[in-house]
Amino acid sequence: MNDGRRRTLRFGHHHCNSTTLECHDIKSMIVEDSIMSTIDAISQACASKNWETEAAIMHTIQAKRSFSKRDVTMVAQFSVNRLGRFESARAVWAGPITVVIFLATHEDIIELQHYFEEPGKLALYDTITLTIVKPKYSLRTHLRYPINHLRNVGIQTASTDYIYVIDADFVPTSKLYDFASTKLVPLLEKADPPAAFVIPCVAIKVEYPGKYPDTIKELEPLMKSGMAYITDPRAGHGPTFTSLFMARTVFENAPFYEVCYESQWEPYYIVNRNAFHPYYDERFKNQGGDKQSHALLLNALGYKFLVLRDHFMYHMDHPKIKWTGDGLDQVGQRDYTYFVHYLPEMQKIFGSSLRWPRGCSRPLVQSFQRDLQGIGTM
């Protein structure tokens, strides 16, 4: 600046045109890259609603704290209606976090702005790398929530070698981060075959009035009373929980136990970031096949699946998910499906046996265990 003073140019401001400030002979510049300045710029873009010049915007605000590459990053993606819910997960994860927020409508940027104007909300994101994604609404692609694309954005902005992808409704146990960063990282570094450490997940009924469980000991009575239950106990998460409660006495001293891959399984896991080469398949939108497809890929690559015994993640029971835009109202009109499209493609690459548990140490024994799950006790 010709007056020798430093100025701040916010994101989205490409030139100086104020009557009180002329920009010429610039000697130094501070570029303000903050959440609120980013929101302000996107807000202006959304307010114009000029379909001819509208552009997609994706902007990342880096965390103010750096972490070691040998750390574990928690990755989450969600729309603005999940901002409050994610606070519980953020509160128990002391390590690196990357968050991707999808603006499903023009009005979402207003809600996002109001959220961060509340006292203390900006401070919650000081150590979080945040990416805000505004699609090009005129293309109408935003009517299908791009869940796997957003997950991939979060993974790509993570700076560590180990990744834990969750959904915004889930809350991990408070000691999971410490266990993962100190115990699991060394194991993942030398795992041969490669391993995925699975985090069991449960649902808590909305009418439950007590303290949410943070340990297996606290969880067990809720399971027995029916206040907590297995999240999708069939193919979705059944393989995880059969061993969690059937085999506790057998593996009492082990911090984790092995389970075999089963078709349509969709576990949450902590892995080396190499597990995301290739990334989640972005052709999956909304719900259905998004996580299943990646677990199938890891199995085809020979990954071993190890379930943690003393840690889990929970979420509050909720009615049927209402996705952004048209979402799942267009039942049967998905552009890309797991069985019709993805599975045949994978069979061409990995062979017809790709759903056989390739990395499992004792697949026949594990299958027999699942068949006898009725004899288990908690």
List the helices and strands and how they pair.
Elements: E1 8-10, E2 30-32, H1 35-48, E3 57-61, E4 72-79, H2 83-92, E5 97-102, H3 108-117, H4 121-124, E6 128-134, H5 147-157, E7 162-165, E8 171-172, H6 176-190, E9 195-199, E10 201-204, H7 216-225, E11 228-230, H8 238-246, E12 256-259, E13 268-272, H9 290-300, E14 304-308, E15 313-316, H10 338-350, H11 363-371
Parallel strand pairs: 1-2, 4-5, 4-7, 5-6, 9-14, 10-15
Antiparallel strand pairs: 3-6, 7-13, 8-15, 9-13, 10-11, 12-14
Helix pairs in contact: 1-3, 9-10
* Name of the CATH architecture: Alpha-Beta Complex
- Classify the beta-strand content into a percent band: 15-25%
Distance between the termini: 71 Å
Number of helical segments? 11
Instruction: Return the structural class.
Output: alpha/beta
Count of domains = 1
Unreliable parts: 1-32, 325-332, 371-378
On the 0-100 scale, what is the average pLDDT? 82
Shape designation: globular
Radius of gyration: 23 Å
Total number of beta strands: 15
- CATH superfamily grouping: Spore Coat Polysaccharide Biosynthesis Protein SpsA, Chain A
Task: Give the spatial strand order of the biggest sheet.
Answer: 3-6-5-4-7-13-9-14-12
CATH class: Alpha Beta
**Sheet of most strands:** 9 strands, mixed
From N to C, what is the helix and strand string? EEHEEHEHHEHEEHEEHEHEEHEEHH
CATH-assigned fold name:
Spore Coat Polysaccharide Biosynthesis Protein SpsA, Chain A
What level of helicity do the residues show? 25-40%
Subcellular location: Membrane
Membrane topology: Single-pass type II membrane protein
Keywords: Glycoprotein, Membrane, Signal-anchor, Transmembrane, Transmembrane helix
GO cellular component, one term: membrane
